[in-house]
Amino acid sequence: MGDMTNSSADDPPNADRSDREAARASMLARHRLIEAIIRNNEAQLRNDSARGGAEIEMHCALRDARSPNSGDEAAADVERLTARFKALQDEHDRLVAEREWLNASLLEFDDGPQGAGTHYRSGNA
């Protein structure tokens, strides 16, 4: 059986090796982007859960603060929980922006010179 590479007699002897190394580097770079997207997804899920809990706590504290017998402690709870919810919302916004950047980077990578025509989808990607 003949050689299965795309090299010709005119190609330098190391062309196949450098092509393989470039393809491997490209694959690893794409893999790192996908891993970053997965980590971002995990962080977003944790943040969604934490924000949901903080929102419930904040609404309970607001309800408690409206009761006629509430004191300074109830107001302090509202303030603390509102700040916590805002911090979680800010983190959510940061994660969404990061995810958009990662998605755009992956699209650019797949459409760019290092990715165009050199990757094959398995149907699971």
Which keywords apply here?
rod-shaped, mainly alpha, 125 residues, disordered C terminus
List the topology elements:
Layout: H1 15-66, H2 72-111
Written description of the protein model:
It is a single chain. By secondary structure, this protein is an all-alpha fold. The chain contains two helices and no strands. It has helices spanning 15-66, 72-111.
**Rg:** 26 Å
| SS elements, strand count | 0
What is the average per-residue confidence, as pLDDT, rounded to a whole number? 84
Q: Globular, elongated, flat, extended or rod-shaped: what is the shape?
A: rod-shaped
Beta fraction? under 5%
Please give the alpha-carbon distance between the first and last residues: 33 Å
The class by helix and strand makeup works out as mainly alpha
User: What count of helical segments does DSSP give?
Assistant: 2
Uncertain segments:
117-125
Order of helices and strands: HH
Query: Helix content range of the residues, please?
Result: over 70%
Sheet having the most strands: none
Summarize the model shown.
With 125 residues, this protein is mostly helical. It has helices spanning 15-66, 72-111.
